[in-house]
Design brief:
GO terms for molecular function: transferase activity. It comes from Allosphingosinicella flava. Keywords: Transferase. InterPro entries: Acyl_CoA_acyltransferase. The protein has 157 residues and is an alpha+beta fold. The chain has a single domain (3-156), classed as Gcn5-related N-acetyltransferase (GNAT) (Aminopeptidase, 3-Layer(aba) Sandwich), CATH 3.40.630.30. 28% of the residues lie in helices and 39% in strands. It has a seven-stranded mixed sheet, sandwiched between helices. The longest helix is centred in the middle third of the chain and has 13 residues, at 81-93. The model has no long low-confidence stretch (mean pLDDT 95).
Length: 157
Amino acid sequence: MKLAVEPLSDADAINGILQHETIAPKLRHDGREPGYIDHPAASYYGAYIDNRLVGVFLAIRFSKWEVQVHVGLLPEAIRYGRSLADLFLAQVFVGQEVQRATGYVLSTLPTAANFCRKLGFEHEGTRRQACRVNGALVDIHILGLTRENWQLRAESH
């Protein structure tokens, strides 16, 4: 089994993942449908198993030092999620000046927050009632991973 994470610029392929029936309901919020973001600060990475696209990672350059990260994986990729995310985080941190990755996770997605924690992200705060999901106000958890903590985790694996 070959796992890979590579830059991806095909908007149709990205939308195919983000709008998949198992992913879109988790990403939908504030009345917006999930979809490709065409912006110079947004970089997409495809997650592949045996050369088949099974997910998408998004890194939004917030500043010279920080990226905001997002993920959408098809059901068949979930069991490889940590390995794929490790490959993605290596692309985020290696060869760049990025010092931290930040994930904003809806309180309605506790498994996503747990996934981040397993990757070494730490809970840094909560933005209370910051988003609407299905009409209800929900919190957004802020999770962060520093370059130093990422390196320590990478060296231990």
